[in-house]
Every structure is written in C-alpha cells, then in structure tokens.
Hints:
The chain is an alpha/beta fold.
Amino acid sequence: xxxxxxxxxxxxxxxxxxxxxxxxxxxxxxxxxxxxxxxxxxxxxxxxxxxxxxxxxxxxxxxxxxxxxxxxxxxxxxxxxxxxxxxxxxxxxxxxxxxxxxxxxxxxxxxxxxxxxxxxxxxxxxxxxxxxxxxxxxxxxxxxxxxxxxxxxxxxxxxxxxxxxxxxxxxxxxxxxxxxxxxxxxxxxxxxxxxxxxxxxxxxxxxxxxxxxxxxxxxxxxxxxxxxxxxxxxxxxxxxxxxxxxxxxxxxxxxxxxxxxxxxxxxxxxxxxxxxxxxxxxxxxxxxxxxxxxxxxxxxxxxxxxxxxxxxxxxxxxxxxxxxxxxxxxxxxxxxxxxxxxxxxxxxxxxxxxxxxxxxxxxxxxxxxxxx
Length: 372
Ligand SMILES: NC(=O)c1ccc[n+]([C@@H]2O[C@H](COP(=O)([O-])OP(=O)(O)OC[C@H]3O[C@@H](n4cnc5c(N)ncnc54)[C@H](O)[C@@H]3O)[C@@H](O)[C@H]2O)c1
Ligand SMILES: [Zn+2]
C-alpha cells in the first residue's frame, strides 16, 4: 500500500532568546561538551565574537577560532574544515546568515553539535536545516540539505539591538515573504524545504510572523535606531528568526525566493541584502498573484516605512532594459522546478511585467501619499 504524501514539520532542538544571554550562555552550552570551534567574520569578532571567546575560555572551554572570509562557498567551507585538526564537541556560528550557513555545513560535515548565534535578525537562516551555498563570484550554487537542524539557536536581543536598522528591515523583508510564499506552495500541495508537504502548524506560524511584524515592526525599528531593547524589538526578533524560519522551512518557498536568488544574473545593480531582494520579489509575487489592492498597499506602506526597496532604482536597475530583466526572470524560472505549478502565470514575461508594475505602482503610491 502506498502512503500519502507526508506532511513534515522540522525545527531546531532548542531556541533560546534572552537579553544578555550571550555572556551568560554557559549553562546552555555546557551540555554540548567543552571543546568548541567557532566561526565568525572579522567584523563580528571585533563587535562581540572575541569577547565571547574570552567568556568561553574563562568558563573552561577550549576554543578554536576560524575566520569566515565572506562567502558561503564550497571552497571556503572546505578551507574552514581543513583547518580543524582535532574534532571538537560542537561548532558555534556567530554572525549573519552566510556565516551561520557555513557553521551548519561544518557541523554536518564533522557530525558534531551545531550552535547558532545570530548577531542580526536579518534573515531566518538561523533556524533551518539547510545552508544556501554560493559560488565564489556570489552567484547561487545550491541549497544544501542537512540531516539535522541546529541543536541550539541562541538569540541575544541586546547584541542585535546594536546593529544598524537596515539589517532588521532586511529581516522583515525575508519574514514577510514567508506566509505569502508558503500559501502559494500550500495551495498546490507542493513540496517544502522539509521534503514533505506543509502542515497547518507551519502555515499558522508563518501567519504569526507576519502579524507580529505588522503589529510591532515600526516601533521595533525605532527602538533599533535608538539601539535599545524593547518588548516590540524582542517580538519582531522572534518573528524574523524563529517564526519565519519554522514557517518557511516547513511551509515552502516559492516565486519570491526563486526570483531573489536570480538577481546576480543581471550583473549590475546595488549590493543588496538577502531580505531586501526578497522584499522587492515579494511585491512582484503579490502582483503576479493579482493580490487585492489593500493587501499590496499594506506591504508597500510598511516597506516604505522601514526603507525596503520598492522601485527599480532602489535595486540600482532604474535603466535596466526588458532584455536585462528577462535574464533575471529566465534564471528564476529555470532554477525552481515547481514554479510552473503555481496557481498564477510564472512565465519569464509575467515576471518581468510584474517587476515593472511594482516599480510604477510604488512611484504612484508614493506620489499620492506625498500629495495627501
Ligand atoms: N539557510 C537558510 O535557510 C537561509 C535563509 C535565509 C537566508 N539565508 C542566507 O543568508 C545570507 C544572508 O545573510 P545576511 O543578510 O545576514 O547577510 P550576510 O551574512 O551576507 O552579512 C552580514 C553582514 O553583517 C555583518 N554583521 C553581523 N552582525 C553584525 C552586527 N551585530 N552589527 C553590524 N554588522 C554585523 C557581518 O560582518 C556581515 O558583513 C544569504 O547567503 C542567504 O542566502 C539562508
Ligand atoms: Zn529568505
């Protein structure tokens, strides 16, 4: 007898969020052993990483420090693994999404515990059981799926509150896309990143992420500008990282993520963060789905409030030709095999049309908003 398509929900073993937890982490880390390897970049070591290593050493851990060079590429990951001589008990990734994806790869490769410490709420990468790999030139390489999710995700809002608000806004872009994309996948009973079909649980969590951000995002953004932790900031950190992470992984990603992955196909434009690319791609998906005007306005209004891209100029593509936009659209349409099953026209022509329509809609929206 054949089984039904399995509904699958996966998650990290532990998520712990508390202000100032980083320098009080010993009780939560000691269960994984005493021999740690830590991966971070120069910037993050300077901000908190080196002090954290001192804290670990003061608490009798032995620590091997690895330097992340900036790209989660197979080459760089292999280089990091080669530097590890003596198998540690656990790996700690500290920093942004690319560093964390590298740490997950190391944990998987060495078959050791994986501890993830995001110093930003810029993506939902901390939660997932996958790493997004890139080529050295920054183009997308592959989604690398692992056999287990992180053992511990340790989130310190005091650290995250010190980062520039652009990072938090990017996290809003990534997280607000989660429900819209999961819904599109759920509508066709499509496969998710958890390698099954979605659950009501994942969909409800994705919805909760959106609701939390719309309710507390603006206040949280201001708190982040002031570099302080407030209940609103704590709420959206949980929404950007935990809720969005659980929602996207077991709910599914669709057009917006396929599209943002393809931005490098057009070899010009501004350097954008993951969540910024997702934000523009989400607006594109909403127009392709023919979402109601109130829904589009809701997202657009919020994106403008927090400085997320809503016009082509924000991407550095104000003079992009249709042929150039078609490069991106073709790449997106080719990259995701399920794309043509979505319940709306996902042809490259439809993608380009929607990208242009977003630009025009936002310009007009802003014009009217200014005139009011
Ligand atoms: N694996 C997944 O499920 C998943 C999900 C979403 C995104 N991603 C990946 O995550 C990556 C994007 O991550 P990102 O947006 O965090 O950017 P990033 O990792 O490329 O860069 C983060 C930058 O912020 C700096 N930084 C870190 N903490 C800081 C702090 N507290 N203050 C100031 N600067 C700080 C870092 O030094 C780095 O330069 C992409 O590669 C994307 O594909 C993966
Ligand atoms: Zn994402």
